[in-house]
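User: Can you model how guanosine-5'-diphosphate sits in this protein?
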Amino acid sequence: MDKKRYGRKKSDRPKQRQSNFEPRQQGKKEYAKVNGGVFLYSKPLSVSDLSTAINVPINAIIKYLFAQGKMVTINQMLDDEMIGELCLEFGYDFKKEKVVDAEHFEELVVEDDPSLLEERPAVVTVMGHVDHGKTSIIDAIRHTNVAGKEAGGISQAIGAYQKDWKGKKITIIDTPGHAAFTQMRARGASVTDIVVLVVAADDGVMPQTIEAIDHARAAGSEIIVAINKMDLPGANPNRVKNDLVAQEVVPEEFGGDVLTVEVSAKTGKGLDDLLDTILLKAEMMELKANPARYAIGTVLEANLDKGEGPKATLLIQNGTLSQGDFVVVGTTFGKIRRMVSADGEVLKTAGPSTPVSVIGLSEVPQAGDRFMAFPTEKEAKEVAEARALKKREEERGGTSALTLADLNNIVNSGKIQDLNIIVKADTQGSAESLKANLEKLSSDQVRIRVLEARAGAISDSDVLLASASKAIIYGFNLRPDQHVQDKAKEEGVEIRTYRIIYEILEEVERAVKGMYKAEMVERIVGTAEVRHRYKITDVGVVAGSYVLDGSIKVGEKCRLIRDQVVVYEGKVNSLARFKDRVNEVKKGYECGITLHNYQDIKEGDLIECFEMVEKE
Ligand code: GDP
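Assistant: Here's the modeled complex, given as structure tokens:
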């Protein structure tokens, strides 16, 4: 026989085989180019947006990215790098236009023509130790000299006010203390030019004084020291100054550059001096802004007013805000319907450093949110929508919480990481013991922080906390209910449940050392709810149950859960449908279940069957 009949002729073989993962196929399909092959874009684009824009089928884009090892879906947003790569692949010149840079206005650094800049009032925050007189000073300043002023309305608490002083203005944030200040800073907003550090002359520098100094420094604000309670016989301003030097806050008279003023909020003595000093400092700082632009600023506080809807105090940091302006805050926009000063005066316009209470926003913003005004509704709407989209993308992509496997990889890559853990247990004792032992596992590379250790079921709010702080939840002797499991899945939060403390510690220790390996995990295969309980001679207690999910099998591992607490772990002993013994009962059917060596079954209990599988 001719041998050749059994093999393929040389000429039959394809000359060069194309790998399935080879991106550039020979004889690549050309698509008709739009816009002469130049692609301009300015906004984030999804796969399908790009497909339409450059006239390339969605599948071709997905296929190309897949070949690059990137799995994308139709609605997934593309980053600039991907867009660039795809344009090149499909023969386009591309350019990202910075048309509406405004959508990232937090990062926007506005550059004003120096000739347009005008002096603006200083923004002042009063800080200091509790009881040293912050509130008293804020109030006393507000009321000095009001007699000379025409009352425009009833003064209101809007979180800040403006003091007229010697023909100038001073903006005073009137929520004392660093809570508000830190909250703002945590959100990236820094509104304060000058911190007035209040120190009681009879008490000296105290722990919160030092904290306030740290906050002021971190924010890059200037410090003026008000030595308060000078009316008291025990007042000792020199001691205060010496204490301050120890904190490297060196008063002028000691050779430093920190201005100090001796005051008494009680008698009002020295307050004029304090105001003069603030003006002096402000002048030295050359604080300026451009009133001839649309306003940019920060939300100082906000709430929902029953009658008027969302109400917010905005601090205008640059530009001028006018009634009727369209404003974007966070991801929403609105029209300034009404604007009121802290004196209750209705304003048509407000310039730099003015705090105003506004009505007309569509949602309640958060303190620390930045805002920006736009000339037209269309622009404001576009920017707000782009920001909302970006936020959703970030939430989808960015906030999925840390998993143990991630941590393990991070450790192995040599980076330093915090591991945040939330502990929920059936008793407070075990929660505390877990917390103490977990924290001891911190290493040079991984700092373990137990954010919460409490007795009680795993709740939605635990999942939210975990999601917000990228934490892992450990449940000890607990099973989260379906609702919580769904929520965790949605938020990308890892919930790990154990019945032995040692196993939790061992697992975390391995992850901390970078030795955590994919391992056996349990998979729930079925859940049944006990609807009634009855006894059968020779058989024992039977759980008359309804299979809610999956299936229940004889001999399978199972646990009995009562009010989220695991009360038994063992095996399914027997199953019956009507009078017949069966091996398996599926979802939607009723059955009688007996458990191996366990009789204490109650109505409402859940029987959960599980198997151990290798973790993905
Ligand atoms: P804050 O906690 O720093 O806001 O302090 P407060 O303003 O609430 O003042 C704390 C206490 O100190 C109150 O009882 C005030 O009346 C009192 N206080 C404030 N300033 C003075 C002052 O200049 N002299 C005297 N004698 N007492 C003052």
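A couple of observations from the model: The CA atoms of residues 411 and 513 lie 7 Å apart. Residues 128, 130-136, 176, 228-229, 231-232, 264-266 surround guanosine-5'-diphosphate (CB under 6 Å).
User: Helpful, thanks.
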